[in-house]
Amino acid sequence: MTATQWGIWAWGVGGVVLFLANPIVRLGAQTLDGFAQGLDPLQWAITVVWCGAMFYAEGIRGFHRQFSPRVVVRAEALARRPFGLPTLLAPFTCMGLLHATRKRLIVSWTLLVFIVLLVVGV
Predict the structure, then answer these.
(1) Hey, how many other C-beta atoms are within 10 angstroms of the C-beta on 5?
(2) By the 8 A CB rule, do 78 and 87 touch?
(3) CA–CA distance from 77 to each of 1, 49, 82, 84 (Å)?
(4) For the whole model, what pTM was predicted?
(5) How far apart (Å, rounded) are the C-alpha atoms in residues 114 and 12?
(6) DSSP string spanning 28-93?
């Protein structure tokens, strides 16, 4: 790939990383504050079980096996054939929120809305 193509790829993948890092940092601080206040044994047990379940379901099955490979493949495809708005908004394109099949658009936007509502609710 040329330098321009690497730049487009880096913008797509890097933008996705920044989108993910922001809530991790913000919610991580609140989590650490909660741990600093202390948990009773039942709360620790619930926390350990919940973290284990989320690590497997969201971390391994969702993120590692599905989301991340798709982001990289979309970034490579966009870098090889850049055009217009999808290139300018490469992070959104790499997450499947733009310039995707109808099914992928519906799934991606539904997941995004659900995750945002879940985070706001918690």
Answers:
(1) 16
(2) yes
(3) 11, 39, 8, 14
(4) 0.80
(5) 23
(6) HHHHHHHHHH---HHHHHHHHHHHHHHIIIIIIIIIIIIIHHHHHHHHHHHHHS--HHHHHTHHHH
Q: Is the dihedral of CA 84, 106, 27, 73 positive or negative?
A: negative
Q: What pLDDT tens digit does each residue of the chain (122 aa) get?
A: 899 999 999 999 999 999 999 888 988 888 888 888 888 899 999 989 999 999 999 899 989 999 999 999 999 999 999 989 999 999 999 999 999 999 999 999 999 999 889 878 87
* Structure tokens belonging to residue 57: 């379901």
- Amino acid in position 5: Q
| Tokens at 18, concatenated | 């920044």
100 CB neighbour count, 10 Å cutoff: 19
Cα of 31 vs its chain's centroid, Å: 19
- Match 């099914």 to its residue by tokens: 103
Instruction: Read off the amino acid at residue 53.
Output: A
**C-alpha–C-alpha distance, residues 122 and 27, integer Å:** 10
CA distance 79 to 73: 10
Identity of residue 60: I
